[in-house]
Amino acid sequence: MQSLAPLALPVCAADGEGREPTRRTISSSGEQLPVIGMGSWLTFDCADNAAALAIRTEVLRQFFAFGGGLIDSSPMYGSSEQALGYCFTQLDSPRPLFSATKVWTFGRGMGTRQMKKSARLWGVDSFDLMQVHNLLDVDTHLDTLREWKGSGRLRYLGVTTSHGRRHGELEKLMLTGALDFVQFTYNMIDREAEQRLLPIARERGIGVIANRPFRASRVFDRVRGATLPNWARDFDCDNWAQFFLKFIVSHPAVTCAIPATSRPQHMVENMGASVGRLPDSAMRKRMAAFYAAL
């Protein structure tokens, strides 16, 4: 695995920089992972735009400055993998990266070629985590991923769904397959995963990556014009982005949430959710009730 070495960055004025992020343990290895990662769907599909790439480089700079680790992408996300690879080369002195992408095609041969291409685009020797995107040809690709893991070509394997789809199929894989990670949608609106998927993940020691944590910004619609409640300070929350992210990562089964942004300041806000106290069970219920009542 090719890791990125520590960044030497100017001190950021925002709260959270320089503080150790909250981490969760990956059950299959004991390794710890910061609870706030980064997605790249839509936001990094800009490899042919020099001005946009400069901004995305600053997004990454802030992500690493605040202790970020896991970055998630996919061949489905346009030029996102190419853009990530370019931006990594623009960082003064890159920092340790937990690289996560997906295989999204049919057939063993096509899948192998796609994964090798992704590594070239990212500029890594191998990936930390490879996932079968939206369960496409899942049995074929899981066979390949198990072989690659066994030979040291990747460290973890997993599967993904999105938009709350195919939970039944995902549940069967979680109960019968040897998975290190699953990735699915979980946010303040989409909470179906609390019924079965999250409890199964916790029982079986499977890492959970929560995608679409802001539901493409829709979770903010209900709070526009609303004031953050004073009791949010009890879990070191300064803004609505942190409110929503801390709700997600405070669930004991969630390993990491992957908000995506194209704005450096939004990245700073997101990463603030990785430090300080997290809501306990009673506070989570209060947060959900408060949001539902708005």
Describe the structure.
The chain is of the alpha/beta class and 294 residues long. The chain has a single domain (32-293), classed as TIM Barrel. It has helices at residues 50-65, 80-90, 108-122, 138-150, 167-176, 197-204, 240-249, 264-271, 281-293; strands at 23-25, 32-34, 70-72, 98-103, 127-132, 154-160, 181-185, 207-211, 256-257. The strands form 2 sheets. A 7-stranded parallel beta sheet has the order 3-4-5-6-7-8-9. α1 (50-65) runs parallel beside α8 (264-271). It is globular, with a radius of gyration of 18 Å.
Keywords:
9 helices; two-stranded antiparallel sheet; disordered N terminus; about 15% strand; about 290 residues; TIM Barrel; alpha/beta; 7-stranded parallel sheet; single chain
Summarize this entry quickly.
With 294 residues, this protein is an alpha/beta fold. Helix content is 35%, strand content 14%.
Q: What's the number of domains? A: 1
Low-confidence stretches at least 5 residues in length (pLDDT < 50)? Answer: 1-14
Tell how many strands the DSSP assignment holds.
9
Query: What string gives the helices and strands in order?
Result: EEHEHEHEHEHEHEHEHH
Give the N-to-C terminal Cα separation.
Answer: 46 Å
Spatial strand arrangement across the major sheet: 3-4-5-6-7-8-9
- Rg from C-alpha positions? 18 Å
- CATH homologous superfamily classification: NADP-dependent oxidoreductase domain
Q: Name the shape in a single word.
A: globular
CATH C-level class is: Alpha Beta
**How many helix segments?**
9
| Largest pleated sheet | 7 strands, parallel
Strand proportion, as a percent range, falls in 5-15%
Just name the CATH architecture.
Alpha-Beta Barrel
**Which structural category do the helix and sheet elements fall into?**
alpha/beta
